Amino acid sequence: MLAALPKSAHPGAKKALAEIWNAEDKQHALDAVTSFKAAYGAKFGKAVAKITDDLEVLLAFYDYPAEHWIHLRTTNPIESTFATVRHRTKITRGPGSRAAGLAMAFKLIEATQDRWRAVNAPHLVALVRAGAVFVNGKLVERPDETPQPEAA
């Protein structure tokens, strides 16, 4: 998204983006998107479109437990894992063969996983996998049940 903005607009845009993905809940994030659109939409429509076109995907992490948001907001685990592989293949000028490359990547990733941080609230992973519904990071006990009127 920053590539669609001039360098002079980067500091303000970074701050506005941080307000979107660090919002306390989905409604506050949507409000931050509206503010971002108002601030940058007139001059930098292409940059705003990068946010607004896939807004549901961008904010999808709000549909998971709040304890997991810290893991879902970042791509750093993926990037840092493959940085090790990229570093080694650069030094050796390629892996040689496809099989050697796969073996090297597997061993490097296997060694790197020892330093990975554990998931917050691992007990909630089973609920997520089972299809439990979370709204703004909180479990909704009975999402399909509507309150019935009491009999007189």
In short:
The protein has 152 residues and is mainly α.
Estimate the mean pLDDT confidence.
81
Shape: flat
Low-confidence stretches: none
State the secondary-structure class: mainly alpha
Integer tally of domains: 2
Distance between the termini: 59 Å
Order of helical and strand elements: HHHHHHHHEE
Instruction: Give me the count of strands.
Output: 2
Q: Rounded to an integer, what's the Rg over CA atoms?
A: 21 Å
The helix count comes to 8
Largest sheet: 2 strands, antiparallel
Strand arrangement within the widest β-sheet reads 1-2
Strand content: under 5%
Describe the fold and architecture:
The protein is mostly helical. The chain has two domains: 2-61, no CATH class; 64-141, no CATH class. It has eight helices and two strands. It has a two-stranded antiparallel sheet with strand order 1-2. A hairpin with a 2-residue loop joins strand 1 (134-135) and strand 2. Helix 2 (26-40) runs antiparallel to helix 3 (45-52) and helix 6 (76-91) crosses helix 7. The longest helix has 16 residues, at 76-91. The mean pLDDT is 81.
